[in-house]
Specification:
Blueprint: H1 2-15, H2 22-33, H3 38-46, H4 51-88, H5 105-118, E1 123-124, E2 130-132, H6 133-136, E3 169-171, H7 176-185, E4 190-199, E5 211-221, H8 226-241, E6 247-254, E7 257-266, E8 283-292, H9 294-299, E9 308-315, H10 316-324, H11 331-334, H12 337-340
Parallel strand pairs: 1-4
Antiparallel strand pairs: 2-3, 4-5, 5-9, 6-7, 7-8, 8-9
The structure holds 3,4-dihydroxyphenylalanine.
The site of 3,4-dihydroxyphenylalanine has 11 residues, from strand 8 and strand 9.
Length: 346
């Protein structure tokens, strides 16, 4: 029964025939099924088996040949399918572009402000958003009863959940607080720009939000004058809004500067002629500024007889509104991609 054993051995082999490509498959076909193949050889052997064994062995041999043929056909179909798939793919086609995000308009404008001031020697300083009264108000010469400290304006952080008593922990309501950290930690000359997020307890509307962004500037050295402040602000305004831009300073009041001013730029929409945007005045307000109050210098450990300085603070949303005409403040924090995509090329 050597023939039967041989048939069985081959049957076991062909059941898991494998080929990696059409050439390997053809080699298998030759090995088993060609004229000189192993299965053909068994058929030759079959001729000389005794008659009584012919029936059983004949069936087995046929089964072996059919199994081999169908396994080889199965493998062939797999290769053909793969080739057809490869033919359908256009490998020369450029892939779909990766969807890139866009930069937020407030980041674009903040970076532009940083860039403009860095060209005249300002470096960036950061401070905490969760602050204490001392750094946000006390050192900045706010009188104890100043209304800015009121709960109506300032978010206080409750020490115990549910206990709504003013505490000493609060969210900064302006980036002027960064000044106090810088002055306490650095010796003049100081020339820093402090960008950051600020919080105020306001009802959210198109024109007000409970958080927004400011950029504070501080320059302290010997003999810093109001004329230096004006020069720096004129330079900034021309860089930001174009070389035709004019500025004007109006007297104002801030506890931490003396004298204090608010600065307007000539309306960049009508060029100063008067339009609905500037309420026909030709001017739009963009920032507050002044000479650092000697009380503030002293409170932060800087000798006010030796040093003087100027400070200014502006709202990033306000500047963005002037540059890109975003009428509703809420758009800045809604993350609506239809809004954000409009800044793709900026
Ligand atoms: N801190 C002021 C505000 O939030 C802005 C400001 C005004 C900053 C005058 C200054 C300044 O440094 O000199 O409204």
């Amino acid at each position: 029964m050597a023939l039967k054993d041989n048939i069985q051995t081959l049957l076991a082999q062909v059941n898991d025939l494998k080929a990696n490509n059409a050439e390997e498959l053809e080699a298998l076909r030759i090995k088993y099924l060609s004229k000189k193949g192993e299965i053909t050889a068994l058929f030759n052997e079959f001729r000389s088996v005794p008659n009584e064994e012919k029936r059983e062995l004949g069936q087995l041999l046929n089964h072996l040949r059919q199994t081999t043929e169908s396994r080889i056909n199965e493998l062939r179909e797999q290769f053909e399918q793969k080739t057809a798939e490869a033919d359908r793919l256009d490998l020369t086609r450029t892939p779909d572009p990766i969807a890139l995000g866009t930069r937020h308009p407030l980041s674009l404008v903040r970076e532009e402000i940083e860039d403009i001031f860095s060209r005249i020697g300002f470096t960036i300083a950061q401070g905490p958003e969760v602050e204490d009264d001392k750094h946000v108000y006390g050192l900045l010469n706010f009188a104890p009863e100043h209304p800015a400290r009121d709960m109506q304006d300032t978010f206080f952080v409750e020490k115990e959940i549910g206990v709504q008593k003013p505490t000493d922990v609060l969210l900064r309501s302006h980036t002027s607080s960064v000044q106090t950290h810088v002055m306490a930690n650095q010796k003049p000359p100081i020339r820093v720009l402090c960008p950051g997020r600020v919080y105020r307890n306001e009802a959210i509307s198109a024109r007000a939000h409970c958080f927004f962004h400011q950029v504070e500037g501080l320059y302290i050295d010997k003999n810093v004058s109001f004329a230096d402040l004006r020069e720096a602000l004129l330079y900034f305004s021309k860089e930001m809004f174009g070389p035709e831009t004019k500025i004007r300073l109006r007297p104002s009041y801030f506890p931490f500067t003396e004298p204090s001013a608010e600065m307007d730029i000539s309306c960049n929409i009508c060029g100063g002629k008067g339009c609905s945007f500037c309420k026909n005045t030709g001017w739009v307000e963009i920032l507050g500024c002044g000479m650092v109050d000697p009380n503030v210098l002293e409170a932060c450990g800087i000798d006010s007889k030796e040093y003087s300085g100027y400070a200014f603070g502006m709202g990033v949303e306000r500047i963005t509104n002037l540059k890109y005409r975003v009428k509703d403040l809420r758009l800045f924090s809604e993350n609506d991609v239809r809004f954000l995509r409009q800044f793709e090329s900026c």
